[in-house]
Amino acid sequence: MTGIVIGRALEGRTMIEILNPTELARARETGALVADILRTMQARATVGTNLLDVDAWTKGMIADAGAESCYVDYAPSFGRGPFGHYICTSVNDAVLHGKPHDYVLADGDLLTLDLAVSLGGVVADSAVSFVVGTTQPAESLALIDATERALAAGIEAAGPGARIGDLSHAIGTVLTGAGYTVNTEFGGHGVGSTMHQDPHIANAGRPGRGYTLRPGLLLAIEPWVMADTDELVTDADGWTLRSATGARTAHSEHTVAITEDGVEVLTLR
């Protein structure tokens, strides 16, 4: 990465990267790839599909594109060893870091697919939640709708000169307005040559505070909620995060680039 690097690293994160025009062009290619893989996996994740097949199909598409997985060797302090898979598959009460396992999707399951890939040295990260099959529970659809509207609000609040708190406030206003409580432990983040960078984007916050956005910055904006709690529990696999009450969850995410004129969504499906 030859772009400008500014700021100092926080614990567990890298410094903030500002991409140059050549790197932004690569970021668009990465974003298009991530969008294509998620679109394909959403179409293939039907009733009777095994999560391990989704993972294998994702691995194949990443390899065919000459890209690299950001997940398979990922081993942060909050996980248990390398993740070991190519996509996160979170079902029903699982909301983040869902580790693919031998599970066959059933009608009415709420599935979240979360994917980060590196292509040409630049990362893009995106997630989509949807209901599998013909049974479409109203609670699940409401959760998905809230996160999608919150994501749109966060993107609308972004642009050169905006502050991170402006995005957090916009996201949190939508989520709390829909009746949900917000967990701020995990949220959006910067991306660039690596998957998780500063600045952290909490899903609730005060406007006018935090880092000032500037052209060349990539951000992964990712609202997520749980139906009746803001508390998480971790599965025995050491990775999958679930609602503490067993309630359903949803998660929406796009990678965006801050430009001279505003904001560009790189992972539109």
Automatic annotation (TrEMBL):
Gene3D superfamilies: Creatinase/methionine aminopeptidase superfamily (3.90.230.10). InterPro entries: Creatinase/aminopeptidase-like, Pept_M24, Pept_M24_MAP, Pept_M24A_MAP1. A divalent metal cation 1 binds at residues 114, 125, 253. Keywords: Aminopeptidase, Hydrolase, Metal-binding, Protease. It comes from the Bacteria. GO terms for molecular function: initiator methionyl aminopeptidase activity; metal ion binding; metalloaminopeptidase activity. Binds 2 divalent metal cations per subunit. Has a high-affinity and a low affinity metal-binding site. The true nature of the physiological cofactor is under debate. The enzyme is active with cobalt, zinc, manganese or divalent iron ions. Most likely, methionine aminopeptidases function as mononuclear Fe(2+)-metalloproteases under physiological conditions, and the catalytically relevant metal-binding site has been assigned to the histidine-containing high-affinity site. Its cofactor is Co(2+); Zn(2+); Mn(2+); Fe(2+). GO terms for cellular component: cytosol. Its EC number is 3.4.11.18. It is an enzyme of class 3 (hydrolase). Residues 27-260 form the Peptidase M24 domain. GO terms for biological process: proteolysis. SUPFAM superfamilies: Creatinase/aminopeptidase (SSF55920). Pfam families: Peptidase_M24. Substrate binds at residues 97, 196. It catalyses: Release of N-terminal amino acids, preferentially methionine, from peptides and arylamides. A divalent metal cation 2 binds at residues 125, 189, 222, 253. Removes the N-terminal methionine from nascent proteins. The N-terminal methionine is often cleaved when the second residue in the primary sequence is small and uncharged (Met-Ala-, Cys, Gly, Pro, Ser, Thr, or Val). Requires deformylation of the N(alpha)-formylated initiator methionine before it can be hydrolyzed. NCBIfam families: met_pdase_I. HAMAP family: MetAP_1. Belongs to the peptidase M24A family. Methionine aminopeptidase type 1 subfamily. Monomer. This is Methionine aminopeptidase. The gene is map_2.
